[in-house]
Amino acid sequence: MQDIADRVGVSRCAVSLVLSGKAKSTRISEGLRRKIIDTAAEMNYTPNELARGLRTGQTKTIGVIVADISNEFFGELVYHIQRRAMAYDYSVIITNSNEDPDAMLREIHLLVNRQVDGIIMVPTNNSLHVANHIVSLSIPFVQVDRFLPGVDASYVILDNFDASSQLTEKLYRQGCRRIAMVRHETSALNGRLEGYVQVMEEHGIYDSCLVKNIDYSSEADDVRSAIDELFKEEVSIDALIFQSHELFLLGISYIRTAGIDFKNRIKIATFDKIEAFALVDFPLTYVEQPIGEIGREVVDILLSQIKGSNEITQKVFKGSINEI
Amino acid sequence: MQDIADRVGVSRCAVSLVLSGKAKSTRISEGLRRKIIDTAAEMNYTPNELARGLRTGQTKTIGVIVADISNEFFGELVYHIQRRAMAYDYSVIITNSNEDPDAMLREIHLLVNRQVDGIIMVPTNNSLHVANHIVSLSIPFVQVDRFLPGVDASYVILDNFDASSQLTEKLYRQGCRRIAMVRHETSALNGRLEGYVQVMEEHGIYDSCLVKNIDYSSEADDVRSAIDELFKEEVSIDALIFQSHELFLLGISYIRTAGIDFKNRIKIATFDKIEAFALVDFPLTYVEQPIGEIGREVVDILLSQIKGSNEITQKVFKGSINEI
DNA sequence: AACGTATATTTAACCGATTAACTTATATAT
DNA sequence: ATATATAAGTTAATCGGTTAAATATACGTT
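Structure tokens for the assembled complex are given below, as produced in the milestone run.
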């Protein structure tokens, strides 16, 4: 800036005023404005956002903490978040928590030290204290995909209860009565269990042995034994809902290697829409999340908080049921 | 810092010296060091990385430009990059280029303005001027996954030629003679074509009608017509190599919907390892990239350049051939 | 001529760190 | 007793911007 100022023959601050678009409000003459802009372009000036951020207290950066960016769902979510943020001239710093609360805490500090203007986080199991910590920092904060009950913060999620009951109801209407569910033991996904349970109970066909819990730490093993049990003759299921695409892939994969024939006997259903569906050659019912809208909304809410809104917004999107 | 200094009763810079770990070299007494550290902890001090970055000229941040973070391969790549960077206390700013050179240029400026210490980029078609622009900025820069011939910069890639010829050779040994390839028309992936062509020619079985080019802008349509042509009776292929997992998914999906029976007639092969393989129920040969190593290596090279090395490192990893 | 009022630009403080150069006090050597 | 070295900190400049307040110039009025 000093160089530009020298070249044009004005003070450094005149350059700043012009270049930060405050020429009109501070009545810099049009001639000088042009000259400064031209000279800046000529000299390939690009502003140092660090200095600007230091002075203004705004970095135009948002921090995103996801469990695992290599997960297809989060990858797509981050894609939409990044695009929306970009549209508003915000950058995105990504960090992976690997579902570990301690890592999340470290990453929050890292983001805060970098003076991000706000944080978007996918909360995980046992991260209540982490979320509350962010709230106590009183930095703009929005949860996405999941939310922690009792945390005083905004969130954007899928209406899991509704999606799950719609899905279960659909299977019921198609004649299924012994509908099983393979689920993760996460409070964040409880809605997917509850929607299912309610519909099953409404129709008087709920049976607790149809629900199998999978632990994160022993996913593959748990899925195998869950499948083994569910496919026993006496359980006689006619539909199987996987609570996430990870479980779906693990499940189908095992069913295949175990040589179990299910195609014409058992309807399969799952949550999320993934690339792998291109390879599905059996009837599949799935819940599709409006992931683009979710990503955009979470950015919009965060930005409104960054702009000063104290409103806590909790937005719930409906999923749609599709079939292959 | 001033607050800590006041509380302890020393100057601001003593605090800085201690907190940035320069206590020994500047001979701050051990007692004072302890007191400052304790007071800082007590007061929940966290450094402002912006200010630090402004002063030191180092932001401990690297910018990553990928074509599409929601792409499974790039998602995983970014995952490894982020983890490795994190291990060295570096943060990662992600941007999506959507394979658009103009977008890349914008993002580079954005990253440069934010004073990133270095840039990792997946170059795309027609981005030669973009890469050269980064080089002209003389900022540490490494290309990954693909590279642009003629650009004077480091890169980390898969040995596509080797992988492709290994793959082709393997199919040949398994008795295939009419091996087809569905490929993207990108110079970045030329190695995958050339390795194939060489092996085919070596065995005297190369036939140009076995190679189908797919345009990025009309992927789905092109794949459909490519498949249609390849599966004509008179072409009589016995193996089909897809040059990327995107093409593989599109291809298999179309083959399925078209009701073409290939399972026991035609061997399928592809590049990359993706989640969808969990659903594969036919023999599949694929090239697996050491993606974790690639991610780590690209960070290591970038960091060595950031640390001052002027060496241009061009690292080529071998892929491994696997079967399902 | 004196004054008020826009207009156009500059001054100087500030954001929160880092660090080269300097000061002061004490210890050790000659 | 004097010179030298070492220890333990402090001073002040700096990074590259922003912005409230001050200043200077021109213009229109009475």
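Chain B has a mean pLDDT of 92. Residues 10-14, 17, 26-29, 32, 51, 53-57 of chain B lie near DNA strand D (CB under 10 Å from a C1'). Further analysis is deferred to the final report.
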